[in-house]
Amino acid sequence: MFDSKSDGYFGQMSFEIDEKLDMEVFERSMNDLVARHDIFRTVFLYEGYERSIQLVLKEKEINIEFNDIRDELINNDLQEVIQKYKSIEKLNPFNLQNDMLMRLRVLQISEKHYAIIWNYHHILMDGWCTATILNEFREIYSKNKRGQDVTLQLVNPYLNYIEWLENKDKESSQKYWKKVLDGFDRLTSFPKKEIIKSKKAEHKPDFQYLTINEEHTSMLNQMASDYGVTINTIIQFVWGMLLAKYNNVDDVVFGTVVSGRPAEIEGIENMIGLFINAIPVRIKYGSEDSLDEILHKIQNNAIENDEHQYHPLSEIQSLSTLGRNLVDHIIVVENYPVIDESDETQSAKNRREDFPVKNVQMYVESNYDLVLVVIPENEIQIKIEYNTNVYENETISNILNHFNQVIHQVMLTSEIV
Known about the structure:
By secondary structure, the chain is an alpha+beta fold. Helices cover 35% and strands 22% of the residues.
């Protein structure tokens, strides 16, 4: 994470607004937001220190770039131009020791149409925070624009979470994960290009999609209800089955991302910071197991994991004979909170009028060469983000096709193992 040249922890939120933007108010409001949250004024010192030091600065101003792209749009598609500037931002990684770890670029599309590209280092916050931050900014901008006093709820400081984390029983979690991983001694993976197996490949990202249509999504939701499990459990079962087939084994481990937000901390849902963690999921398939038995085994294991999901993955890996080779890919379920536009208070109406947001898109560069992203909507979107220097495009296409076949089998029968 402390590689100044790495883009592996680069986060980006983009959206459009259909309203005349007051740039002076915009910049002032953004700096008000920075002043409100200590985490946005944080730098991380590590060179010359035995361990990294997190330093909160008393003051720090954000960098906002402005581009009028109206001339560019005469002969170019809007989304292609926006994508060009998003790519420019991705090529400019943050320096944790010196940079403001958040910056914005404003693109003027027309007199009352703008695109905002909001970039941040993932060490500051996770995707869950973005809706909270955007809502707060809209409120600040609207009040500043109207010359009104800005009154927001008191910030629930990230320090409260850090103190809670420091008091966790780490020894108990170490024993738990050591038991979970006991006897697992072979990385379960998907076929990689031969030329990279002995070295670390430069990250060249691409992605491929699979859409589970609305009818089949409804069937999966009904199946989850009938079996008393979650959609996430079914997805993990299917992915584990696929991994088992590719590796010709009946015992697999892959990574999954967890929210890392303990419900016992008051106001945790609106706290700003980095909470997510990756933990291993181990699934053993027995020849006599029914679908019902395996699904409940996966779900029960997930419930047991909850108490220990805060333990750092690096320390979990050290408990395995495989070490850092325990997992080489992860599953991410994108269930970020959405912007709530149902509030009918006058303040909320002003916010929607002054800063109307549409087409919100999220992006976080992963340090894994393969990530399965699940987007649970009316139609479930399955996306594989992958490093083209590690995986052939055809390999990813095959994985998605096989995933589709297995999930259809699951919907049609209750005995496929």
